[in-house]
């Protein structure tokens, strides 16, 4: 457990960020300045065990030395070159990436983020099939651009933008419901898009039967199966890609997050048949495939293979979930996950516990639906750090009383109103 300072020094950096930021993020009252492995430090020198990892980006740990070195070397050579002009690092990265992809996925559209990868996936699916309808999953999350939002189930993400989010060509089905899926996929469906483990939807792994039936149904109907591996890819679930757990090969996968060890990157990978049906100039990107991110990606993927990151995630994830399931608390409904992608569903709102973990225990965690505490640590997290996280979570479960805190907050508001 990391002691909480009695008082926080005034932070000019926090003031500046709050003043100039757009306001779309709810800011934590902390300024992080350094990270190494699964530990990050704030500007006051306090350490935290990071179970957020940049929303699942820092799979190989913060500031992995191989990635740092690759970025430093490449920055002194060449940082930008459009994809219309071939580049040595881009070619090397493509060879490295295709070498770890499921067999048959051998063509790559490079971009800068998961949302961009999903936008590319939609366009390649349309040109690849000549169809325009999509099937997506309830509780699924595909990104926040207008195009990706059309595939995202949660209404709170779509509603502020009204009819600008055009999802009239999207059919949503219950994740895991084969009959609903079978009824939704028709000869007008371009693609079924699903996450092998729903992340934002509460850390819900797909079943073998559902994923395999999705593959069978899409083949039967001439639709594409596109697996969203943006959060699950690159060893997070105990395999290089979560799709490998289910024994299927999709027609395409969206990739991003951990692919370059912390540098912005994204990709839609696909079969040659799908790639060849996109007209030249049908899609593009300015920064995608830049030499700097390519160098980082080469170093990151090689580190994953050399250091056995998939096996580490499998073993550490099993240990983490075993320890979480051993917690004696009536507040826990279920512990579920795959590898080091773990969700603890509570019987009450998770936000107060996540806040207490950070403020009182020096542990960063995420929410996934209002009831779920999500743990996405770097794969480099040690078992000792896992023990510390579980011990901290146990203490928080025993000490936080959200109902009492809410009642106290309401009482304080009423008292303030009366004094006005």
From TrEMBL:
<comment type="subunit">
    <text>Homodimer.</text>
</comment>
<feature type="binding site">
    <location>
        <begin position="114"/>
        <end position="115"/>
    </location>
    <ligand>
        <name>pyridoxal 5'-phosphate</name>
    </ligand>
</feature>
<dbReference type="InterPro" id="IPR037537">
    <property type="entry name" value="LysJ"/>
</dbReference>
<dbReference type="GO" id="GO:0042802">
    <property type="term" value="F:identical protein binding"/>
</dbReference>
<dbReference type="InterPro" id="IPR004636">
    <property type="entry name" value="AcOrn/SuccOrn_fam"/>
</dbReference>
<comment type="function">
    <text>Catalyzes the transfer of the amino group of L-glutamate to [LysW]-aminoadipate 6-semialdehyde, generating [LysW]-gamma-L-lysine.</text>
</comment>
<feature type="binding site">
    <location>
        <position position="286"/>
    </location>
    <ligand>
        <name>pyridoxal 5'-phosphate</name>
    </ligand>
</feature>
<dbReference type="GO" id="GO:0030170">
    <property type="term" value="F:pyridoxal phosphate binding"/>
</dbReference>
<keyword id="KW-0808">Transferase</keyword>
<dbReference type="InterPro" id="IPR015422">
    <property type="entry name" value="PyrdxlP-dep_Trfase_small"/>
</dbReference>
<dbReference type="InterPro" id="IPR049704">
    <property type="entry name" value="Aminotrans_3_PPA_site"/>
</dbReference>
<dbReference type="GO" id="GO:0019878">
    <property type="term" value="P:lysine biosynthetic process via aminoadipic acid"/>
</dbReference>
<dbReference type="InterPro" id="IPR005814">
    <property type="entry name" value="Aminotrans_3"/>
</dbReference>
<dbReference type="GO" id="GO:0008483">
    <property type="term" value="F:transaminase activity"/>
</dbReference>
<dbReference type="GO" id="GO:0006526">
    <property type="term" value="P:L-arginine biosynthetic process"/>
</dbReference>
<dbReference type="InterPro" id="IPR015424">
    <property type="entry name" value="PyrdxlP-dep_Trfase"/>
</dbReference>
<keyword id="KW-0457">Lysine biosynthesis</keyword>
<feature type="binding site">
    <location>
        <position position="144"/>
    </location>
    <ligand>
        <name>substrate</name>
    </ligand>
</feature>
<keyword id="KW-0032">Aminotransferase</keyword>
<feature type="modified residue" description="N6-(pyridoxal phosphate)lysine">
    <location>
        <position position="257"/>
    </location>
</feature>
<dbReference type="Pfam" id="PF00202">
    <property type="entry name" value="Aminotran_3"/>
</dbReference>
<dbReference type="InterPro" id="IPR015421">
    <property type="entry name" value="PyrdxlP-dep_Trfase_major"/>
</dbReference>
<protein>
    <recommendedName>
        <fullName>[LysW]-aminoadipate semialdehyde transaminase</fullName>
        <ecNumber>2.6.1.118</ecNumber>
    </recommendedName>
</protein>
<keyword id="KW-0028">Amino-acid biosynthesis</keyword>
<feature type="binding site">
    <location>
        <position position="141"/>
    </location>
    <ligand>
        <name>pyridoxal 5'-phosphate</name>
    </ligand>
</feature>
<dbReference type="GO" id="GO:0005737">
    <property type="term" value="C:cytoplasm"/>
</dbReference>
<comment type="similarity">
    <text>Belongs to the class-III pyridoxal-phosphate-dependent aminotransferase family. LysJ subfamily.</text>
</comment>
<feature type="binding site">
    <location>
        <position position="285"/>
    </location>
    <ligand>
        <name>substrate</name>
    </ligand>
</feature>
<comment type="pathway">
    <text>Amino-acid biosynthesis; L-lysine biosynthesis via AAA pathway; L-lysine from L-alpha-aminoadipate (Thermus route): step 4/5.</text>
</comment>
<dbReference type="InterPro" id="IPR050103">
    <property type="entry name" value="Class-III_PLP-dep_AT"/>
</dbReference>
<feature type="binding site">
    <location>
        <begin position="228"/>
        <end position="231"/>
    </location>
    <ligand>
        <name>pyridoxal 5'-phosphate</name>
    </ligand>
</feature>
<keyword id="KW-0663">Pyridoxal phosphate</keyword>
<keyword id="KW-0963">Cytoplasm</keyword>
